[in-house]
Fold these 3 entries.
Entry 1:
Amino acid sequence: MSRYTLLLINGAILMACAVFIYTARSTVLTALLLLLPFIDRAWQAPNWQSQKSNLTITIILFVSYSLLIALNLDELYLALSLLLLVALPEEWFFRAYFMVRLQSFFKDRNISNVVTLWGSNITSSVLFTLMHVPTQGLFGLSVFVPSLFFGWVYQKSNNLIIVILLHAISNLLFLLYLKKLIIN
């Protein structure tokens, strides 16, 4: 079995569970996003320690998220759910696992660094986007560009906490402010 067979299987399992709408869909997908990377022994979990150069950015993002929550205290449950049940599992799987493993796959085939970085980012962003389409319809396609941005930030910073906080902030801003503008 190839070093990358589990990468393909994990992506296929996730997509198979994502294409159907069923009662436990969110629970199943969250569990898969968190647990599937641990099945792949060729994958190494990211280093959670923040580098000094990233510490300032991490603190700014954490304070920004905290301020958003403080300004909308009645949405505390929503904010914590977005952070722990959406942003963390999605970034854990799509950036720390899937994109990093795709980068290894491309590097092993002696593909240029630029193609490796963009190819892995685009591929993981396409999978990320496809996961959103069944429940959000065509509007789910709108997550593609933010996903590319999150992938780029992760590639530049190598800091999962920054990407998780960015994802949580963008989701909270969308749900608290932008969604109301779009719907009205």
Entry 2:
Amino acid sequence: MTKRAFLIHGVSGSPKKHWLPWLKGELEKKGFAVFAPQMPNAKNPKMDEWVNCLSKIVGKSDENCYFVGHSLGCIAILRYIEALKEKNRVGGAVLVAGFSDDLGRKELHDFYTKPIDWEKIKSHCKKFAAIHSDNDKTVPLKHAGIFNEKLNANIIIKHGMGHFTSEPQTSPKVSELPEALEFVLKMVE
């Protein structure tokens, strides 16, 4: 059965930004069918819209489905997994600069109106990885520890990678993220 990968961007993001296009190409070279949707209302995201969008794109989930999220894309993926029916499974999720609360930002609050059901998420997915940077001004490093504690996620802490973006004003400009590719490929093994 074909391996499928779903790449989910963050707030005000796009599947054409940062390292997502590079990862899409690399996964396609490895035989994955890759889906990198433009999420609805990216500047004013709503959890139900993003989870419904993911549900439609994925269709029937199975253990050949792998997810990679950036920033808000991480909680969208976790909320999608949390909403799966009891017997549904996915192969794994890589969370890049993800977070477990709304970071005090109003535009993120809709994704945190109810507590995260970590046990339910783990019942649908056994393999998690989280990639964080030691100088991310958006997401405190403590979230890596939370993902490790709650999801038993493999953690990589990168030095000086900021929020893993390639915007002109950011330094460094992150247009490739080999660790995300490596984690997905390890999850498939």
Entry 3:
Amino acid sequence: MAIIIQEDSFSISKICAELSDKDNVGAIVSFSGHVREFSKDKQLKYLEIEHYPGMTEKALEDIEKKAMKNWDVADIRIVHRVGRLLPKDLIVGVIVSSMHRSNAFKACEFVIDFLKTDAPFWKKEISEDSENWVDERQEDIIKKTNWN
């Protein structure tokens, strides 16, 4: 298990390769999230992501522990970027390894659904003529409640 919060980009394929070297891994499922080019019909110049150090890692650890408890998975890696990100930049990676694909798929989806609602990250979208803090999306709240 590993949680990494950093400004620099990272390689999903490198993390997948690391996890595939472990014993009893029959499946690796990954999710990569990227900065959208447009928001509310405005082209973004960049996205600023802030977080609360310590609190953020704890929230992600709690999500990771719940996924490990609910599904038989070997390992989970969560990498999330902070700072200034440009459109198409990689923001987040969730990588799950397991003996069986079903557990890996479910755990990966669970982690990203809870990360979107429970992790203390704040995002500000900057376009040519405005700056807006991103509100929590109703769609994300519904996805999270569907796990209960």
